[in-house]
Amino acid sequence: MAVRDDAEAIAPELVRLRRAIHREPEIGLHLPATQRKVLGALAGLPLEISLGAALSSVTAVLRGAGADGGPVVLLRGDMDALPVAERSGLDFASQTEGVMHACGHDLHTAMLAGAARLLAARQDELPGTVVFMFQPGEEGHAGARLMISEGVLDAAGQRPVAAYALHVASSEWPARVCSTRPGPMLAAAEILEVTVQGHGGHGSQPHLAADPIPVACEMVTALQTLVTRKFDVFDPVVITVGSFHAGTTDNVIPDEARFLATVRTFSADARDRLRASALALLGGIAGAHGVTVSAGFHDGYPVTVNDDAETQFAARVAAGLLGEELCVAQPSPLTGAEDFSFVLEQVPGAYLMLGACPPGADPATAPNNHAADAVFDDSVLGIGAALYAELALQRLASAASQTG
């Protein structure tokens, strides 16, 4: 049977796995319940399995018959949820208060487990080795970087020739539509933390104090002007201040004001220039008002950069599986960030989006990923598993033919 036919045959099992994970979501690096479910789904397959030390990861290696020294392909699925109180109304909604699989990682996990099933059944056909990377901590915890430090890229004994990841979307694309692009696919993300230190006093006598609040407000607006006047619109920068705290009551000028911003860039040059420009700007504003500022950037995720050749290959595989009409070019990078970027810094590969908008919903208006009422279409589970499997099968065959 074809991979897609086999995937549809196991789709009901993937739905059960996905919903079980959805009911019991976990956040961060330690996902013991999710890890147990993954191990249960992989039980009985001819896999070499290792578990993470610093995180609840699962690395599974499938070696093709006679594949010693053959090429290696890595497939990654993230497993963690978000600190979101679910409002989806699903009958399998989260049973953990304040935690939800609002980004679809439960689907990724089930798809990757399905791909392991599909490829294990074809072990004799594999001209190489597949590494299945079940990763915790994508949502802000850099789980991919930790798994790399623990050896996931060397789990098969040699580095992969290619690495692939899928991500579902509850909006924007209809179900089963696949989208990707060469080059920058997602943004780099960092946190800018700013503390303006003034001197408090009575609200009725601001001239006797050094009020940090208007200074911090000026900084917020000046950062927006910095983006529009110092950076090329074709190498975009996004700065959003999402947290601002100062003071305790109406008639007291506080000593300090603090704010946090998320910063998104799409090139190393823009990121480096933004860091320097923002810190200089903040220091200048503080100096002009006679206050001091402490500001710094906290490293987040680098730009997710798809390899040109691997992206073209992945798009051809997706078109062959889904049909040309369901494969579209992503016109511009997404402003979200992704820690698969750490993998792609070391291994050529591609990151693909897969539409999972539920039936009857308009992709343009459906709740998007991270929303408390986000809903994903389970019908894409078989497709996702088949796409993972086909990417590995065809990339291994291509690599083997080049070295054979």
Q: How would you describe what is shown here?
A:
The protein has 404 residues and is α/β, with parallel strands linked by helices. It folds into two domains: 3-186 and 303-403, Aminopeptidase; 188-301, Alpha-Beta Plaits (2-Layer Sandwich). It has nine helices and 16 strands. The protein has helices at residues 3-23, 32-42, 105-120, 143-149, 212-230, 268-289, 308-322, 341-344, 380-403; strands at residues 48-51, 58-63, 72-78, 129-135, 162-169, 178-180, 183-186, 188-197, 201-202, 237-246, 252-253, 256-265, 292-301, 304-306, 327-329, 349-355. A hairpin with a 6-residue loop joins strand 1 (48-51) and strand 2 (58-63). 48% of the residues are buried. The model has no long low-confidence stretch (mean pLDDT 96).
Return the domain count: 2
Query: What structural category characterises the helix and strand content?
Result: alpha/beta
As laid out across the biggest beta sheet, the strand order is: 1-2-4-3-5-16-6-15
Characterize the main sheet: 8 strands, mixed
Give the strand content: 15-25%
**CATH architect. name of the largest domain:** 3-Layer(aba) Sandwich
How many H/I helices?
A: 9
Q: Rough shape? A: elongated
- Let me know the CATH homologous superfamily of the largest domain: Zn peptidases
Chain-averaged pLDDT: 96
